[in-house]
Amino acid sequence: MSHEQKPVLLVTGATSGVGHAVAADLAAHGARVLLGARSTGSGHAAASAIRSRTPGAELEVVAADLSDMKQVRSLAGQVRQHTTRLDGLVLNAGEVRTRRQLTPDGFETNFATNYLSGFLLTHLLLPLLTDSAPARIVVLSSSNHAHIKHLDLDALSAGTDFRHIRTYSTRKLLTVLFVAEFARRLHGTGVTANAADPGFVRTNLGRHTTGPFWLFLKLTRPFQASPAKAARTPVYLATAPEIATTTGGYFANSRPAKPSPLSQDPAIARKLWGLSGDLLTQRDLASSEELT
Questions:
Q1: Which one-letter DSSP state was computed for residue 147?
Q2: Is 168 noted as a catalytic residue in this protein?
Q3: What are the pLDDT digits (tens) for 14-31?
């Protein structure tokens, strides 16, 4: 396959864990992969590790701290500098903070990194995705989203309801709502959006955790799936020909799964969409034209 024929995919959070495994798998199957990293150093280290297993892998590093919306915009610019087409976007980057912390933009850090950055990045790259259609958006979620039975949208951005375990589950619920609403809005464009549940995975997602949650992660480590196994579902959603037109789905073990009823509520999904746009435009972090 020539350079021009290779599909181009961006994977955020590609330096470790599931994201790294997804990027490695895509590269091994002949894709050109843009490695989303927090820093260029960690990105190049991840690229070297992948090339050690797949010599000749086509990899390029794009770096940004996704808790900062200005850096999210920079990341989109870097992608456009590297490629004139984008066949797939895998939104994997995330972190778990057990203490409430605000970003420079005034957002609670988990909310900014795990949800709002993906909302903004997808919009900024949407012209590239639609010009490259058929194209796919894959968003990493978790079965933990089903733990949330009520969603207080007004308390989200500043984390005024902060409880770290609930916060993580809530952010994963937001990703499923995002997929459902994006799929509805993208209907007929040739761009699909689906959510992937990778399972309970052995990663460094909890690197900032402390106390009982840190102990829980340590004690359950033997029962956590490897990143390579967890990568199978997002890679399937990004590449499988039989689901090229499937959109708005929730998948686990590379099969359709049933998300929570709350995550499929269209009224809540629309309200979340509107709130997300307002949060960005009111802080001059995006224009209304970019978010239509």
A1: G
A2: yes
A3: 999 999 999 999 999 999
